[in-house]
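Hey team,

Filing this mostly as a record. A colleague (T.K.) asked me to run one chain through the structure pipeline before their review meeting, and I want the input and output archived in the tracker in case anyone asks later how it was produced. No errors, nothing strange. Just documentation.

Input sequence:
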Amino acid sequence: MRPEILLLGSGWVAEVDEALERAFVCHRMAQVALAERAAFIERIGQKVRGVYTTGVAGIDGALAARLPALEIVAVHGVGVDAVDFAALAPRGIAVTNTPDVLTEDVADLAVALLLAASRRLPQLDRYVRAGEWEAKVPLRASRSLRGKVAGIVGLGRIGRAVATRLSSFGMAIRYYQRSTADAPYPRSESLLALAAGSDYLVVCAPGGAATRAMIDGAVLEALGPDGTLVNIARGSLVDEAALIAALQDGRLGGAALDVFADEPRVPAALRECENAVLTPHVGSFTVETRTAMGRLALDNLLAHFAGRPLPTPVTGAAA
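Output structure:
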Protein backbone atom coordinates (compact mmCIF):
# COMPACT_ATOMS: atom_id res chain seq x y z
CA MET A 1 0.00 0.00 0.00
CA ARG A 2 1.38 3.40 -0.97
CA PRO A 3 2.04 5.82 1.91
CA GLU A 4 -0.16 8.89 1.95
CA ILE A 5 1.53 12.31 1.78
CA LEU A 6 0.39 15.91 1.88
CA LEU A 7 1.82 18.33 -0.69
CA LEU A 8 2.11 21.98 0.34
CA GLY A 9 2.81 24.20 -2.64
CA SER A 10 2.71 23.46 -6.35
CA GLY A 11 4.65 23.84 -9.57
CA TRP A 12 6.76 20.70 -9.34
CA VAL A 13 8.38 19.64 -12.60
CA ALA A 14 6.35 17.03 -14.48
CA GLU A 15 8.70 14.07 -14.04
CA VAL A 16 8.89 14.59 -10.28
CA ASP A 17 5.13 15.08 -10.02
CA GLU A 18 4.55 11.84 -11.90
CA ALA A 19 7.04 9.98 -9.69
CA LEU A 20 5.28 11.27 -6.57
CA GLU A 21 1.96 10.01 -7.89
CA ARG A 22 3.45 6.57 -8.62
CA ALA A 23 5.06 6.21 -5.21
CA PHE A 24 2.48 7.81 -2.93
CA VAL A 25 -1.16 8.66 -2.46
CA CYS A 26 -0.85 12.43 -2.92
CA HIS A 27 -3.15 14.96 -1.23
CA ARG A 28 -2.59 18.44 -2.70
CA MET A 29 -3.38 21.42 -0.51
CA ALA A 30 -2.99 23.86 -3.43
CA GLN A 31 -6.01 22.30 -5.15
CA VAL A 32 -8.27 22.97 -2.17
CA ALA A 33 -10.05 26.30 -1.70
CA LEU A 34 -8.94 28.27 1.34
CA ALA A 35 -12.35 28.02 2.97
CA GLU A 36 -12.31 24.24 2.64
CA ARG A 37 -8.80 23.47 3.86
CA ALA A 38 -9.67 22.89 7.50
CA ALA A 39 -12.27 20.27 6.52
CA PHE A 40 -9.80 18.78 4.02
CA ILE A 41 -7.19 18.26 6.73
CA GLU A 42 -9.83 16.87 9.07
CA ARG A 43 -10.71 14.31 6.41
CA ILE A 44 -7.22 13.14 5.41
CA GLY A 45 -5.02 14.17 8.36
CA GLN A 46 -5.13 10.86 10.25
CA LYS A 47 -3.62 9.01 7.27
CA VAL A 48 -0.86 11.41 6.24
CA ARG A 49 2.61 10.00 6.98
CA GLY A 50 4.71 12.46 4.98
CA VAL A 51 4.69 16.11 3.92
CA TYR A 52 6.32 17.40 0.72
CA THR A 53 6.66 21.15 1.05
CA THR A 54 8.61 24.19 -0.11
CA GLY A 55 11.15 26.26 1.77
CA VAL A 56 8.71 29.17 1.89
CA ALA A 57 5.64 27.15 2.92
CA GLY A 58 7.42 24.88 5.41
CA ILE A 59 5.04 23.48 8.02
CA ASP A 60 3.86 25.04 11.27
CA GLY A 61 3.05 23.42 14.57
CA ALA A 62 -0.71 23.83 14.17
CA LEU A 63 -0.80 21.84 10.94
CA ALA A 64 1.65 19.24 12.22
CA ALA A 65 -0.59 18.69 15.27
CA ARG A 66 -3.42 17.73 12.93
CA LEU A 67 -1.27 15.05 11.30
CA PRO A 68 -0.85 12.47 14.09
CA ALA A 69 0.78 9.84 11.85
CA LEU A 70 3.34 12.24 10.40
CA GLU A 71 6.84 10.74 10.12
CA ILE A 72 8.78 12.97 7.72
CA VAL A 73 8.77 16.48 6.23
CA ALA A 74 10.67 16.74 2.94
CA VAL A 75 11.47 20.35 2.05
CA HIS A 76 11.84 21.16 -1.65
CA GLY A 77 14.43 23.89 -1.03
CA VAL A 78 17.43 24.63 1.13
CA GLY A 79 15.83 27.03 3.63
CA VAL A 80 14.06 25.42 6.57
CA ASP A 81 13.22 28.53 8.61
CA ALA A 82 9.50 27.98 7.92
CA VAL A 83 9.62 24.52 9.54
CA ASP A 84 8.54 24.40 13.19
CA PHE A 85 11.29 22.18 14.59
CA ALA A 86 10.07 22.77 18.13
CA ALA A 87 6.81 21.03 17.23
CA LEU A 88 8.35 18.25 15.14
CA ALA A 89 11.42 17.24 17.16
CA PRO A 90 9.61 15.90 20.27
CA ARG A 91 7.62 13.60 17.98
CA GLY A 92 10.75 12.31 16.24
CA ILE A 93 9.59 13.61 12.85
CA ALA A 94 12.43 13.67 10.33
CA VAL A 95 13.12 16.79 8.27
CA THR A 96 15.07 16.89 5.01
CA ASN A 97 15.98 19.61 2.53
CA THR A 98 17.74 19.92 -0.84
CA PRO A 99 21.17 21.54 -0.33
CA ASP A 100 23.92 21.80 -2.94
CA VAL A 101 21.73 21.19 -6.00
CA LEU A 102 20.57 24.82 -6.09
CA THR A 103 23.81 26.54 -5.04
CA GLU A 104 25.16 27.37 -8.49
CA ASP A 105 21.94 28.76 -9.97
CA VAL A 106 21.18 30.90 -6.91
CA ALA A 107 24.73 32.24 -6.97
CA ASP A 108 24.35 32.99 -10.69
CA LEU A 109 21.21 35.02 -10.00
CA ALA A 110 22.92 36.95 -7.20
CA VAL A 111 25.62 38.00 -9.64
CA ALA A 112 23.05 38.76 -12.35
CA LEU A 113 21.15 41.02 -9.94
CA LEU A 114 24.33 42.76 -8.86
CA LEU A 115 25.30 43.35 -12.49
CA ALA A 116 21.80 44.54 -13.36
CA ALA A 117 21.94 47.08 -10.54
CA SER A 118 25.50 48.26 -11.17
CA ARG A 119 25.10 48.58 -14.96
CA ARG A 120 21.49 49.84 -14.65
CA LEU A 121 20.17 47.20 -17.07
CA PRO A 122 16.43 47.61 -16.33
CA GLN A 123 16.71 51.38 -16.75
CA LEU A 124 18.65 50.99 -19.99
CA ASP A 125 16.08 48.57 -21.34
CA ARG A 126 13.31 51.07 -20.62
CA TYR A 127 15.43 53.86 -22.16
CA VAL A 128 15.66 52.02 -25.48
CA ARG A 129 12.03 50.84 -25.52
CA ALA A 130 10.75 54.37 -24.81
CA GLY A 131 12.65 55.81 -27.77
CA GLU A 132 14.83 57.92 -25.51
CA TRP A 133 18.05 56.75 -27.19
CA GLU A 134 16.78 57.89 -30.57
CA ALA A 135 15.61 61.15 -28.99
CA LYS A 136 19.09 61.66 -27.54
CA VAL A 137 17.81 61.97 -23.99
CA PRO A 138 20.85 62.38 -21.66
CA LEU A 139 21.93 59.10 -20.12
CA ARG A 140 23.55 58.55 -16.72
CA ALA A 141 26.71 56.41 -16.68
CA SER A 142 26.77 53.15 -14.74
CA ARG A 143 29.46 51.80 -12.39
CA SER A 144 32.32 49.37 -13.02
CA LEU A 145 32.79 46.42 -10.66
CA ARG A 146 36.57 46.26 -10.84
CA GLY A 147 38.22 47.41 -7.65
CA LYS A 148 34.94 47.50 -5.72
CA VAL A 149 34.29 45.59 -2.49
CA ALA A 150 31.60 42.91 -2.24
CA GLY A 151 30.56 42.17 1.33
CA ILE A 152 29.03 38.69 1.71
CA VAL A 153 26.61 38.23 4.60
CA GLY A 154 26.77 34.51 5.35
CA LEU A 155 29.63 32.55 3.80
CA GLY A 156 27.89 29.20 3.43
CA ARG A 157 27.58 27.20 0.21
CA ILE A 158 25.82 29.96 -1.69
CA GLY A 159 27.88 32.78 -0.17
CA ARG A 160 31.10 31.05 -1.21
CA ALA A 161 29.82 30.47 -4.73
CA VAL A 162 28.87 34.15 -5.01
CA ALA A 163 32.28 35.20 -3.68
CA THR A 164 34.08 33.03 -6.24
CA ARG A 165 32.10 34.56 -9.09
CA LEU A 166 32.52 38.15 -7.95
CA SER A 167 36.24 37.79 -7.35
CA SER A 168 36.58 36.91 -11.06
CA PHE A 169 35.25 40.41 -11.84
CA GLY A 170 38.21 41.91 -9.99
CA MET A 171 36.21 42.65 -6.85
CA ALA A 172 37.65 42.44 -3.35
CA ILE A 173 35.68 40.09 -1.09
CA ARG A 174 34.92 40.47 2.60
CA TYR A 175 32.38 38.60 4.69
CA TYR A 176 30.58 38.56 8.00
CA GLN A 177 28.90 35.80 9.96
CA ARG A 178 28.95 34.94 13.63
CA SER A 179 31.60 32.25 13.20
CA THR A 180 34.90 32.52 11.35
CA ALA A 181 34.89 30.63 8.06
CA ASP A 182 37.80 28.66 6.62
CA ALA A 183 38.09 30.95 3.62
CA PRO A 184 40.68 33.18 1.93
CA TYR A 185 38.60 36.30 2.52
CA PRO A 186 38.90 38.69 5.47
CA ARG A 187 36.10 38.62 8.05
CA SER A 188 34.71 41.94 9.23
CA GLU A 189 34.33 42.40 12.98
CA SER A 190 30.60 43.14 12.63
CA LEU A 191 27.83 43.39 10.10
CA LEU A 192 27.92 47.17 10.46
CA ALA A 193 31.65 47.21 9.70
CA LEU A 194 31.10 44.98 6.66
CA ALA A 195 28.42 47.32 5.30
CA ALA A 196 30.58 50.41 5.91
CA GLY A 197 33.48 48.86 4.00
CA SER A 198 31.47 47.48 1.08
CA ASP A 199 30.22 48.85 -2.21
CA TYR A 200 27.84 45.90 -2.61
CA LEU A 201 26.32 43.96 0.29
CA VAL A 202 25.13 40.50 -0.79
CA VAL A 203 22.83 38.73 1.67
CA CYS A 204 23.26 34.94 1.64
CA ALA A 205 22.51 34.10 5.30
CA PRO A 206 19.74 31.71 6.40
CA GLY A 207 16.37 32.99 7.56
CA GLY A 208 14.85 32.52 10.98
CA ALA A 209 14.47 34.35 14.26
CA ALA A 210 18.24 34.83 14.73
CA THR A 211 18.61 36.78 11.48
CA ARG A 212 15.28 38.58 11.29
CA ALA A 213 15.72 42.23 10.17
CA MET A 214 19.50 42.00 10.61
CA ILE A 215 19.82 44.35 7.61
CA ASP A 216 18.31 47.31 9.44
CA GLY A 217 18.42 51.07 9.03
CA ALA A 218 21.87 51.36 10.59
CA VAL A 219 23.33 48.78 8.19
CA LEU A 220 21.75 50.53 5.20
CA GLU A 221 23.11 53.89 6.40
CA ALA A 222 26.56 52.33 6.65
CA LEU A 223 26.29 50.95 3.12
CA GLY A 224 25.46 54.47 2.01
CA PRO A 225 24.32 56.47 -1.02
CA ASP A 226 26.84 54.78 -3.33
CA GLY A 227 26.14 51.29 -1.99
CA THR A 228 23.86 48.56 -3.29
CA LEU A 229 22.05 45.82 -1.35
CA VAL A 230 21.57 42.44 -3.04
CA ASN A 231 19.31 39.87 -1.34
CA ILE A 232 18.84 36.31 -2.60
CA ALA A 233 18.36 34.77 0.87
CA ARG A 234 15.08 35.54 2.66
CA GLY A 235 13.04 38.73 2.75
CA SER A 236 12.83 38.43 6.53
CA LEU A 237 16.51 39.35 6.86
CA VAL A 238 15.86 42.93 5.70
CA ASP A 239 13.88 45.64 7.47
CA GLU A 240 11.77 46.37 4.39
CA ALA A 241 10.34 49.66 5.66
CA ALA A 242 13.85 50.94 6.40
CA LEU A 243 15.01 49.78 2.97
CA ILE A 244 12.21 51.60 1.17
CA ALA A 245 12.88 54.80 3.12
CA ALA A 246 16.62 54.61 2.38
CA LEU A 247 16.00 54.08 -1.34
CA GLN A 248 13.47 56.90 -1.51
CA ASP A 249 15.70 59.35 0.37
CA GLY A 250 18.86 58.48 -1.54
CA ARG A 251 20.59 57.27 1.62
CA LEU A 252 21.08 53.94 -0.18
CA GLY A 253 22.25 53.87 -3.77
CA GLY A 254 20.27 50.86 -4.92
CA ALA A 255 18.87 47.41 -4.21
CA ALA A 256 18.55 44.20 -6.19
CA LEU A 257 16.10 41.80 -4.58
CA ASP A 258 14.83 38.30 -5.33
CA VAL A 259 13.09 37.85 -1.98
CA PHE A 260 10.62 39.92 0.05
CA ALA A 261 9.08 40.05 3.51
CA ASP A 262 5.54 39.02 2.53
CA GLU A 263 5.73 37.16 -0.75
CA PRO A 264 4.20 37.50 -3.27
CA ARG A 265 3.01 40.86 -1.94
CA VAL A 266 5.68 43.47 -2.69
CA PRO A 267 4.96 46.95 -1.30
CA ALA A 268 3.89 49.45 -3.95
CA ALA A 269 6.47 51.92 -2.63
CA LEU A 270 9.23 49.41 -3.32
CA ARG A 271 7.88 48.61 -6.80
CA GLU A 272 7.96 52.31 -7.57
CA CYS A 273 11.63 52.76 -6.61
CA GLU A 274 13.57 53.47 -9.79
CA ASN A 275 16.79 52.38 -8.08
CA ALA A 276 15.55 48.86 -7.27
CA VAL A 277 15.80 45.71 -9.41
CA LEU A 278 13.11 43.19 -8.43
CA THR A 279 12.65 39.52 -9.35
CA PRO A 280 9.96 37.09 -8.06
CA HIS A 281 12.00 34.66 -5.89
CA VAL A 282 13.47 32.74 -8.83
CA GLY A 283 16.99 31.98 -7.60
CA SER A 284 16.57 28.24 -8.15
CA PHE A 285 14.00 28.55 -10.92
CA THR A 286 15.72 26.74 -13.76
CA VAL A 287 14.57 23.48 -15.31
CA GLU A 288 17.76 21.74 -14.27
CA THR A 289 17.79 22.88 -10.66
CA ARG A 290 14.09 22.46 -9.99
CA THR A 291 14.32 18.93 -11.41
CA ALA A 292 17.31 18.12 -9.18
CA MET A 293 15.58 19.62 -6.13
CA GLY A 294 12.42 17.66 -6.81
CA ARG A 295 14.30 14.40 -7.25
CA LEU A 296 16.26 14.91 -4.04
CA ALA A 297 13.14 15.71 -2.00
CA LEU A 298 11.49 12.64 -3.52
CA ASP A 299 14.57 10.49 -2.78
CA ASN A 300 14.36 11.50 0.87
CA LEU A 301 10.75 10.37 1.06
CA LEU A 302 11.49 7.11 -0.74
CA ALA A 303 14.47 6.40 1.51
CA HIS A 304 12.43 7.04 4.66
CA PHE A 305 9.59 4.72 3.74
CA ALA A 306 12.03 2.04 2.59
CA GLY A 307 13.91 2.22 5.89
CA ARG A 308 17.11 3.52 4.29
CA PRO A 309 19.32 6.39 5.55
CA LEU A 310 18.05 9.81 4.48
CA PRO A 311 20.20 11.44 1.77
CA THR A 312 20.00 14.96 3.24
CA PRO A 313 18.59 15.08 6.78
CA VAL A 314 18.32 18.37 8.69
CA THR A 315 18.45 18.68 12.45
CA GLY A 316 16.82 21.38 14.53
CA ALA A 317 20.25 22.62 15.57
CA ALA A 318 21.36 22.92 11.95
CA ALA A 319 18.29 24.95 11.12
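Quick notes for T.K.: The chain has a mean pLDDT of 96. The first strand starts at residue 4 and ends at 7.
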